[in-house]
Amino acid sequence: MSEKLRVGILGATGMVGQRFISLLENHPWFEVVTVAASARSAGKTYEEAVGARWKMTTPMPEAVKKLVVMNVADVEEVASTVDFVFSAVDMSKEEIKAIEEEYAKTETPVVSNNSAHRWTPDVPMVVPEINPQHFDVIEFQKKRLGTTRGFVAVKPNCSIQSYAPVLTAWKEFEPYEVVATTYQAISGAGKTFKDWPEMVENIIPYIGGEEEKSEMEPLRLWGEIEDGVIVPAKEPVITCQCVRVPVLNGHTAAVFVKFRKKPTKEQLIEKLTAFKGIPQELELPSAPKQFIRYMEEADRPQVQADVDYENGMGVSVGRLREDKVYDFKFIGLSHNTVRGAAGGAVLCAETLKAKGYITKK
């Protein structure tokens, strides 16, 4: 039997589920042993269930092709085969909340890509470089669920990854007002150009629910644990517009910031390049060596050239300059389905394993 932790993917046939499977191929700590999806896929091999809907640019890993898809609703049965699960199920918010807690109550940790539990007060929503201390709230969650090792942890929305780490790096200068516009790739909607042809040469100035998430979720990352729940920070105040653009992978943000303590451009760049966290200190398998890089070229970062920086786990920043209305403005770029989705969740799981929250059953 492998020494690796046995992993299940809930919602394995969807785009984020596929990204989990491709990222976990040959992972040094984790091995995908179980794939689960809706009843219509259950009973087929993974290869049969996905068929022509494989959306990754790399081939489907051989190790998963012949795995028989289980019904995600057979919670006890799925949970009995794994040490923990990644969740990327496509259901209503209430259904997701219920099924993720059901898995947790089988003493199976759930690391979720879904938004359903992002505002559950005792569920940690974590970017491991920013707020790994929020995993401490798990002990309070376990008391509520009546579990000893089962819990739910989540990662935040993909749209904030290109600017929340940057603002965190600048915390000591006290950013207090932020305007952000995000230009978001179509894979964020689980689509490719083949199945969304109307996005070719098009921009849609609306993504349902995205602006609220982009404004509020960073404040939860910067919050504190009080009385067993996470209390969001009050600042900086963020206002955001989210635009869908004809790009496959990569969310770009144009951001304006006001600071209470006025930094120089050189100080801001220094803070970005020096910024690191637990993943870098522990050299976790999926951690980017350099989390945030600053690019001096006037026309960078660009999606085509820069989205795969640090295997899609790093953030690229450029065009930092003083502004007439705000103090500074910049452009940020992150990979929305790697750092912003499955990769961010894998890094959370690695951090949870390193902290002793995820172990063999």
TrEMBL record:
GO terms for biological process: methionine biosynthetic process; threonine biosynthetic process. InterPro entries: ASADH-related, Asp_semi-ald_DH_pep-lack, NAD(P)-bd_dom_sf, Semialdehyde_DH_NAD-bd, Semialdhyde_DH_dimer_dom. CDD domains: ASADH_C_arch_fung_like, ScASADH_like_N. Keywords: NADP, Oxidoreductase. Residues 6-138 form the Semialdehyde dehydrogenase NAD-binding domain. One of its GO terms (molecular function) is protein dimerization activity. Its EC number is 1.2.1.11. Belongs to the aspartate-semialdehyde dehydrogenase family. This is Aspartate-semialdehyde dehydrogenase. It comes from Blautia hansenii DSM 20583. The gene is asd.
